[in-house]
Amino acid sequence: MSTYQERILILGAGGQIGTELCEYLAEKHGSNNVIATDLKPLAYQPSETLDATNASALEELVDRYQITTIYHLVAMLSATAEKHPEKGWALNMDTLFHVLNLGKSGKIKKIFWPSSIAVFGPSTPRHNTPQQTIMEPSTVYGISKGAGELWCSYYFEKYGVDVRSIRYPGLISWKGEPGGGTTDYAVDIFYEALRKKQYTCFLKADTYLPMMYMTDAIRATVELMEAPASDVRVRTSYNLAGNSFCPSEIAAEIKKHIPDFEIDYVPDFRQAIADSWPASINDEAAQADWNWKPKYSVERMTEEMLQGVKSKLNL
Ligand code: AKB
């Protein structure tokens, strides 16, 4: 726990992670101490519109709100970045540097920056992928996350910036929607199962990927941020495992609740991205360093997702 009153700024707060992280942190620290920002106006208060590529606008908010901690969630994800490689690289790297430099200048004390399973590539061991292993990503997003991890570690070693990071698996949520990722099918499937009882999946039936329910991911994020600095031994980014499953398995789980649900498979360019990523992840380092333990099974996640999406769609 910190000995000072944390004042938190969230960048990209309107996205899939930000939507739930804002709520969670506001509950914990009081909403006056959690300021949300996004390109678009947000319902959450207090919030500000911010283009995170604008370093001086970001610094002005940090000064105005006396921010101590930034959760930097702005990113172009894997599928979109393959369509806009240079834009993806620029967005993902420029915004990271702006935030790291605020840490270097001493204006902020702590940073969270998400990495991803996308840092791994076709030459990485695919099963139970270790914390430290071959990392030759084949996507723009993965290259940007891999480079970003090394920059985080560099700023920690050279300038003492307390930056912490998790390699998120595919994240599954109903409150916030994913946008532009390869693992998005695992959210879309719930919406389509409830709306149409039919889903056409853009990955093959047996494509295993590491996945995690958002409630676990938010808890992991905050647990990492609250761990004593000396326990955070990995300053690139931590592997984090939840469940590993493939489209046919999640479809079978949904069928237990919606027996006439049907799925078919029309793989597109995202199949090659998924094939380059791990099928499952080893997170022993996170378990050992800050006591990480996932709580959600695929069964429990499916029940909560169906309930949540149902209420969101007013069904
Ligand atoms: C994506 O699919 O691009 C993201 C990720 C795994 O980082 N969800």
Structural features, described:
This protein is of the alpha/beta class. The chain folds into two domains: 190 residues, Rossmann fold; 95 residues, UDP-galactose 4-epimerase, domain 1. The protein has eleven helices and 14 strands. A six-stranded parallel β-sheet has the order 3-2-1-4-5-7, sandwiched between helices. The chain has a three-stranded parallel β-sheet with strand order 6-8-12. A three-stranded mixed β-sheet has the order 9-11-13. Helix 1 links the parallel strand 1 and strand 2. Helix 1 crosses helix 7 and helix 4 packs parallel to helix 5. It is globular, with a radius of gyration of 19 Å. The model has no long low-confidence stretch (mean pLDDT 97). The chain binds 2-amino-3-ketobutyric acid. The site of 2-amino-3-ketobutyric acid (AKB) has 11 residues, from loops. The site of 2-amino-3-ketobutyric acid has 11 residues, from loops.
CATH superfamily of the largest domain: NAD(P)-binding Rossmann-like Domain
Q: Biggest sheet: strands, sense, closure? A: 6 strands, parallel
- How many beta-strand runs? 14
Arrangement of strands in the largest sheet? 3-2-1-4-5-7
What is the name of the CATH class of the largest domain?
Alpha Beta
**Number of separate structural domains:** 2
Distance between the termini: 42 Å
